[in-house]
Amino acid sequence: MQLYYPALICTLVLLQGCNDKNASNTIYRPDNGSASVLRSNLDASLTEMIQQHGLTGDPAQDRTLPSIETPLAQLGMKLFFSKTLSGDLEVACVTCHHPLLGGGDNLSLSIGVNASDPDVLGHKRLLMGNLTPGVPRNAPTTFNIGLWKQFMFHDGRVEATAAGITTPDVPYPQPDPLAGANLAHAQARFPVTSNHEMRGESFDAGGTTQSCRERLAERLGGYGNPDNLLQPAETQYWLAQFRAAYQQPDAQAQELITEQSIASALAEYERSQVFTHTPWKQYVQGDLTAISDTAKHGALLFFRKRGEGGHECVACHRGDFFTDEQFRNVLMPPVGPGKGNTDPDNQQDYGRWLVTRNPEDKFRFRTPSLLNVAVTGPWGHNGVFTSLEGMVEHMLNPFQSALNYDPAQLQQANIPSQQLQRNLREMLGSNTDMAGQAYQQEDVQYLVAFLNTLTDPCVTSTACLSKWIPPAQQDPQGLQLDARFEP
Ligand code: HEC
Ligand code: HEC
Q1: Ligand 2: which of 316, 352, 455 to mutate, most ligand atoms within 8 Å of CB?
Q2: Which of 66, 108, 395, 421 is the most exposed, fewest CB within 10 Å of its CB?
């Protein structure tokens, strides 16, 4: 911390002619301190990097994504905010993916069912009693979800293969015939089937994932399901919404409101969340004033090769979407209950291995996109880092950071961390995909400044995001989740 201030100040002073010899040993920094030379050197080096990596600034350019104004996305928004899709009418998709929380929930580990107040979202959301979190992972953002080409989830358990989309409902890597038209559709069929996220313990108890979805569709449509908790006015409301969105004014609920038509609408809403108009994009597209010199330094560190004065983050965070969609073990400190463990003391999350059972995939997780990363914390698949600085320090030297990890930074109660050291030893005995490297403290600030240029201004503006949030109390039974955020 003490180190980077002089460096930063010197960078600023550099513009007026300070010679930055003390703080600098990265090779691209110019000796000549005149403002125009500095600016053009930085821009020239960055332009070279941008060309070398084939960046256009626009990760959405080869995609056709819906507007939020389309009828289907509008229906999807109402469903996304509706507690009718959870077993006990308490949880909605938006519980863990709120636009005002960066498309996530601001928690390290998500809290779905059994919240002490179901409508409180954000860092004040608590589990009833002193329960340990049941959801083992951090909720990724739904922003820009339509830009993923191959994988959904931290472990990629929904995957677009040549044969079709595979999901946890079928043995890997077979295609799931019910996966739907795109990754977001395939994914949207799963949260409702998860006990900890939305289903609870009693809804369709003993049923399959598919029967759970079908019972929910029957509930929404007011058909089939004998113990419906919805009032007739509520099911009428949904029928009208589906008829309008699917433009089938005379269709009956039974044919129109199905688990597929629900997932399809949810996916259209999520896919409309395209937030890519970042200062970085403006810069890549030619506006050299769109980002600060500090951020430009950070960008160079991000793109440059290790042997050439950089940290080569781009080796994995590649392209305009800042991910190669591959799986890596980057030694994220193993806290939390872990996933899929029958032994509650294990608390390990084997990541991609849980899908492929390939020993090499142990502890590997999907490289996240870095677009809007400043608003999607806590960071990592288990939300272990509660500051972006801490997360970046980890990526600079995962080994050192993991060994020194302090669970006290977690801002959420009852996240198990007793097995941290034991589990870390197991991780270290497995493949790791990243070697640590020496770095200077100021590099962290440069990199964070660069990452901050990847934020679309819309995602920090309540007014801009209001298109993705329905007006309060739209449905007759009051089952829309109108979030309360407590300071
Ligand atoms: C209790 C919190 C919770 C609820 C409710 C919830 N999610 Fe999630 N969501 C998560 C978590 C946690 C993950 C990551 C799980 C993993 O990777 O193993 C996730 C993953 C996702 C992803 C994948 C993102 C990516 O980058 O791969 C999408 C899309 C998504 N959820 C959409 C939805 C939709 C649609 C609903 C409602 C049907 C929903 N979620 C309900 C917590 C939640
Ligand atoms: C070897 C591949 C690789 C390299 C190199 C790499 N990363 Fe990552 N990065 C990952 C993976 C994989 C994750 C997710 C790990 C997890 O959650 O378990 C990640 C996570 C992150 C996150 C957290 C994102 C989120 O939404 O939680 C940030 C920020 C990040 N990396 C920045 C960087 C920076 C800055 C560098 C360069 C100093 C870098 N990364 C280098 C693979 C890499």
Answers
A1: 316
A2: 421
